User: Fold this.
Amino acid sequence: MVTRLRKRYGSGIDPKTYVGQNYIIADASIVFELLQVMRDEEQFDYCVDITAVHYPQRKDQEFDIVWILYSFPHNERVRVKAMIKDGDPVPSVVAIWGAANWLERECYDMFGIRFEGHPDLRRILLPDGWQGFPLRKEYGITQQDSEWVRINLGIESGQ
Assistant:
């Protein structure tokens, strides 16, 4: 698989293994096409999860977006990662894997990642009026949306 993908994408991908886990670092400009190929040609027919990792110290590309894929025919798992700047949109893969709908919504809700082309990108876990994105590193561990808590719960934050 790596040979086929290298032939097609060259330096646009960087396949790696860490502690027995296979992953591919992909250039963000080709990630949608790569994910389509992973499903259609490499038989990764199940998108297990989509998440992000926030690296605020990386000013150029603060986020890794991670797609965890599984192939039932090959009983194999792989992760595909792409690095993006804060605010850059990522192509939605709902057209590739329908179940990505809620996974992308969760990633948006927790990290603020915008999935371009998503059919209904809105919060899925937090209330609509919530401010901020709790899984970003700058979001303090005890921080809450004080205004939302006061208005909707009638208490002061931290009670």
Remarks:
- The chain has four helices and seven strands.
